[in-house]
Amino acid sequence: MNKYKEIVVKIIEETNVMFFRLATFLRIIGFILIICFAWLLEVGTIRTLGLLFGLFLMTFPFTLRIFIAKYKTVGALKFTEYQIITKLIDGERIIHEIEKINRFKFTILDYEGEERIRDSFHSSTMMKIRTGTENKLFFNINNKDYNYQIYLKNEFQKIKLLHFLNIIEKQIKNI
User: Quick check: 33 and 50 in contact, CB under 8 A?
Assistant: First the structure.
């Protein structure tokens, strides 16, 4: 008997892509400015202002996330042992039978805040924190591809999702 009946996870997609690409580019420029001002100039006002401006540019992607969302919720996926149900915000509910799936791939990397000690080190050095948004699901039914980015908020959700994905993967291999 299965210990979990179902799980529902959020489907997300990236928003404000242009702003975050620009912020990443500015971060690289900030890093170059810091190197240039730290090693090429004598101590003085111009060097201090250049270093401060470089630091500001380096923190720009992190600061931008405070004011602008990088991801938005576009729907939800519900997993059971025999079905994957997709419900998009603007659309109808779609039921996918597992026995009709031709190809199935998933990448479940993390949930929000996983490995807090490692995240603390990254946040202090590169201002990067695990956000639970690097999880992907792909399946193909009747030559139609479904590709989703999934948000996981805690470890229990990750465990349940991996449980269902492994069950689905075994069923597809047996078909």
Answer: yes
pLDDT tens track for 76-94: 999 988 899 999 998 889 9
The CA R_g of the chain, rounded to the nearest whole Å, is: 22
In angstroms, the CA 98 to CA 100 distance is 5
The helix-helix angle for 45-58 and 60-67 (nearest 10°) equals: 50
Q: Which residues pair with residue 121 across a beta bridge?
A: none
Contacts 24+ apart (CB under 8 A), 24-29: 24/61, 26/57, 26/60, 27/57, 27/58, 27/59, 27/60, 27/61, 29/57
> In the numeric block, which tokens belong to residue 23?
């912020």
Residues 96-130 have pLDDT tens digits of 998 888 889 998 887 776 555 555 555 555 555 56
Q: Are 104 and 84 in contact (CB under 8 A)?
A: no
The crossing angle, in degrees rounded to 10, of helices 45-58 and 17-40 is 150
CA dist 20 and 8 (Å) reads 29
Dist. CA 87–CA 138, nearest whole Å: 16
Token duo for residue 154? 């805690």
* Distance between CA atoms of residues 137 and 174, nearest Å: 20
